[in-house]
Write the structure tokens for this entry.
Amino acid sequence: MTATEWRQRLCGASCAVIGLGISNRPLVELLLRLGARVTARDRKSEAELGDYAVQLRKAGVSLCLGEGYLEDLCEEVLFRAPGLRPDLPAFAQAVARGAILSSEIELFLDMTPATVLGITGSDGKTTSTSVAGEILRAECARTGEGRVFVGGNIGIPPTSFLEQTQEGDLVVLELSSFQLQNATRSPEVSAITNITPNHLNWHTDMQEYADAKRRIYAFAPNRRLVANAENPTVREMALASGRRVTWFSSLKRSVGEFSSLMHEGDHAIFADREGSVRLFDGERERHLLSVQDIRLPGRHNLENYMTAIGLTEGYASPESILQVARNFRGVAHRLELVCERGGIKYYNSSIDSSPTRTAAALSALAEKPIVICGGYDKNLSFAPLAEVLCARAKAVVLTGATAGRIREALLAHTARTGEEIPVLADADFAQAVALAKGYARAGDTVLLSPACASFDAFRNFEERGETFRRLVLAPTED
């Protein structure tokens, strides 16, 4: 629907906002301003929602809470939270009765007059989104023109700034597979950082996961796709997309190495043998910056910059890209140096919720760290994690629900290859951090890189990272 159609549809309509997490709370307020009659539905009880439930009632919102929150979905328009599958039987029955099933992301994409640039992928989404936003803001500051908004899965609900957006504005959205699952509109320019197995405890299989990611470019008004040439799944998607593609690669050293992928109108981003990051725009190459200019370490961060450069091509100058590369210190919980104490460096990379993210973090560090791993089980294989830990870590401290599975993978790898690594374990997160601190000596590095989600012990990865930071910075007893 268009923005006008949505306004007409929502005014006076009964709407259900289902799931009252961070993303849907601004949506409730937006729907009320648009004249909708809102029912808030959530599995939590009124007592668990506390003051927020009181605020909702005062605003005129009806509440349907507790275990039966999905019963009798009688509203005309349903907005599901990203964590709720769109094919739940209750949703299917409501749609069969004539209800519209949507989400805050779909509503935003339909209603904003701004140009939307979107990023998805298994790893690197948040850093790529943050870098793209910083590049565009630097460009706006340099030229004195335009406005930039950043939101989505990065933790800023886009409905919180929807009414501020205007034609000529730029919006950078980080989009998860959950948010894209039943989207029918795409950003104007889209990027896929990579696709590796993830969230298989939620998606039915890898195919469904990849199909959700595909929606970031599958619909109007998408005109260009930024794609990782080194990721097989992304490569296949891009070749079949029918879109003009900006390919990027941290391994290719010349535009000629993209020849098997390039079609007319395609672009390429790469770093040559001298470390010059270059853009081929279909006609000529130009130098943008040097790899050494990028303050964030590791090949994965080079790829994050390439993603951001491709996404902002045509909207930002090399001057703005270089300015950000030299000054951007990174995002909290992503290889964040917490401190150095007693000659020991402590890194917080709590965002690493999959084995591939942990592998990337390990590859970015010159030294072999003592790695704290474990957490919520997403039904991913830990065999690749065991291999990279044995190759790149000094020791492993296991914690959380997956500690046993990771230990089994490490033992299986040792039995197969003979490679061994010291393993410590404690189910309690605080005790696991204490074990790592006790094992470390001057010159060592301790890295929190769980390779798992946080939901076995924490509300989210941010809380896990903040807990790690607090434990590391706590005064030590003499």
About this structure: The chain has 17 helices and 20 strands. The mean pLDDT is 93. The longest strand covers residues 37-42.
